[in-house]
Every structure is written in C-alpha cells, then in structure tokens.
Design brief:
single chain; 136 residues; alpha/beta; 23% helix
Length: 136
C-alpha cells in the first residue's frame, strides 16, 4: 500500500476537531479530489457512550456524502478520535466498519501535550496501518 499524503492544513483541522471535544469521540468524513485528501466533513457522534465509541449521525453522514458528490469529491476516509486510548482500531471500531474500502484515520488525545493521528486500511479481516505523510 502506498503512503497517504495529506496537507499540513488539513491535518491541523482534523486535530483541531478532536480537541474541540476532548471527552468524546468526534467523527466525520474526509473527501478526496484528484487523489489527495481535500476536505473534512464533521458528523455528529450519536453513540450512546460517546466517550469510548462513535456512531455517525445517519442524516449528517448522508448530507456529507451528498455535498461531496455535488462538489466533485468522493469519500476517502472516516475519521474519529480516541480521547483516552491510542490511535489504534478498537474492537468496537472493527465491528463498525461500514465502508470496507475507506481509509480510517484515528486521532488520539491520550498523549499529554502531543496529538497523534494514524491511518488504517482494512485488509481482509484485519486492519493494516498505512504510512501517513504530512506535507508542508
């Protein structure tokens, strides 16, 4: 699998989204245009336990996908944060993989003073980490 390249501006916006709600998992979609991550589409987390799970609001998710289509973009990734866990797929994350071809970006707030984001891709029944390169 080739590395995922993302602009520093987009990566910063994703990290900022996670920081806005440090006690709950934030989630949403990332679109791509011309093979590059392009825009983020935050979607409300409607999980019963948002501190440790995420479930995208169905109406918000549909709106995000519709807007992407209207703008000539396509969905590249699903992102979510882990307020108190490493940026690795949890058992719950693996159970909820609704888009098998999507990239999964996980942002961790678990490390004091440093935010960490890692990329994952489904490969057969497991998740494999993808190299994530931030471009200036």
């Amino acid at each position: 699998m080739k590395p995922v390249k993302m602009s520093r501006m987009l990566a910063t916006r994703l990290l900022f989204e996670a920081q806005k709600q440090p006690d709950a998992e934030v989630c949403g979609c990332v679109s791509e245009r011309a093979g590059m991550p392009h825009e983020i589409y935050p979607v409300a987390n409607v999980a019963a336990q948002p501190a440790c799970r995420f479930e995208m609001d169905p109406a918000g998710q549909i709106d995000a996908l519709k807007t992407m289509r209207e703008r000539g973009e396509r969905m590249l990734a699903i992102y979510h944060s882990h307020p108190s866990a490493p940026p690795e797929p949890s058992v719950h994350d693996l159970e909820g993989l609704g888009y098998p071809d999507a990239l999964y970006l996980i942002i961790s707030l678990n490390i004091k003073g440093v935010l960490e984001m890692r990329a994952w891709q489904r490969e057969n029944a497991a998740m494999r980490e993808r190299v994530l390169t931030i471009l200036d």
